[in-house]
Amino acid sequence: MVTRSDILGYAEENYKTISEHLWTRYPNYEVLRHKHNKKWYAIIMSVPKNKVGLEGDEVIDILDIKCEPELVVPLSSREGFSRAYHMNKEHWLTIILNGTVSDKEIYSLIDTSYEMTK
């Protein structure tokens, strides 16, 4: 199961990105963005399950990434995915970090998001 820590390590190792905490009110929100253009390619957040279509109010980690618009709907209908939480729902996708989505797929989607936002 990919964790927040795994994603942050992946971003640092592959893209030399260190997460940024932009909001004191939300200390568990971490943005990953390009150094040269400041565009975000991912954000990790801790949100209640019911914010991403799951039952309950337990707080979970999610990852929002930029995604090809034609993939957003099909992916968001799969278990472990949701329409983007708190981002543009046409261009962003939420991955629920609960072990449902494979490590390989998560890293591939991060790579795609990074390339799309270059």
TrEMBL record:
It comes from the Bacteria. Keywords: DNA-binding. SUPFAM superfamilies: YjbR-like (SSF142906). InterPro entries: YjbR, YjbR-like_sf, YjbR/MT2646/Rv2570-like. The keyword DNA-binding applies. One of its GO terms (molecular function) is DNA binding. This is Predicted DNA-binding protein, MmcQ/YjbR family.
